[in-house]
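User: Let's play a game. I give you a shape written as tokens, and you guess the letters that built it. Ready? Here's round one.
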């Protein structure tokens, strides 16, 4: 993705400029031009973040003396779709006789893997005995790189995910999920598999990103700490994780309940009359 941003958005604008000539005014013009082309505010922010990282690196290696400020656009809170507990149970039930599709769904819904991370997952990353998988790499248009966060993470396996992975153990490839000839799954193959499962379960058609949202949402609804969710899914910032915390209905009540700790019952009203 970063290579695409560099090729299509940054080099055409700044390719002929010296790094120290890239000032805030030029960055604001880039921002306005990208919005005028119809790019979403989120996409523009991705491009600006890439530019900012490049400028900070240029400063680190002393190519530029000062780093110009790269101001990101404000992005409104986005609505996200996820499966309810009942809907996920229906999907699992519909896929129980199809081990590969079931493993695919659970890697998203019960381990929080991104689509590219699922495509690049190898058996060497899965410890079925310990019940643990390590996310080390991701696939983007056939190119294997690091996960989006830039670092690996470990995710404990749920009982049914471990069982599903045991059921698909094979020698076709190092990849956990692949085609019959051992070749990697494609994005279209994954989306088709999920559409098939959803249709069988009588659910709306969903993409793999909905499964990842489901993982985060269910953890929040079960009372998991935001920091724990962040570590499990590999969010780069806690802000991304906090989008899910409104789903924890008891969070506010429990927070206020902390103030009652050690207080005698009725102390707040004593002496008021």
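Assistant: Ready! My guess for every position:
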């Amino acid at each position: 993705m970063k290579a695409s941003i560099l090729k299509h958005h940054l080099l055409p604008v700044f390719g002929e400029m010296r790094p120290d000539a890239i000032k805030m005014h030029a960055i604001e013009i880039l921002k306005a031009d990208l919005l005028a082309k119809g790019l979403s505010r989120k996409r523009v922010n991705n491009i600006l973040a890439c530019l900012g990282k490049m400028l900070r690196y240029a400063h680190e290696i002393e190519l530029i003396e000062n780093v110009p400020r790269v101001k990101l656009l404000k992005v409104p809170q986005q609505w996200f779709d996820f499966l309810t507990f009942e809907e996920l149970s229906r999907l699992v039930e519909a896929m129980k006789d199809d081990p590969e599709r079931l493993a695919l769904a659970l890697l998203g819904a019960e381990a929080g893997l991104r689509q590219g991370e699922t495509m690049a997952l190898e058996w060497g990353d899965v410890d079925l005995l310990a019940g643990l998988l390590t996310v080390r790499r991701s696939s983007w248009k056939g190119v294997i790189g690091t996960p989006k966060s830039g670092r690996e993470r470990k995710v404990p396996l749920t009982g049914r995910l471990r069982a599903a992975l045991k059921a698909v153990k094979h020698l076709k490839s190092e990849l956990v999920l692949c085609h019959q000839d051992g070749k990697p799954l494609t994005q279209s193959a994954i989306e088709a598999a999920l559409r098939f499962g959803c249709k069988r379960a009588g659910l709306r058609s969903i993409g793999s990103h909905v499964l990842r949202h489901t993982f985060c949402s269910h953890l929040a609804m079960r009372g998991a700490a935001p920091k724990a969710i962040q570590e499990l899914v590999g969010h780069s910032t806690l802000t991304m994780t906090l989008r899910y915390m409104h789903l924890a209905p008891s969070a506010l009540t429990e927070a206020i309940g902390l103030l009652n700790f050690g207080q005698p019952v009725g102390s707040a009203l004593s002496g008021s009359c």
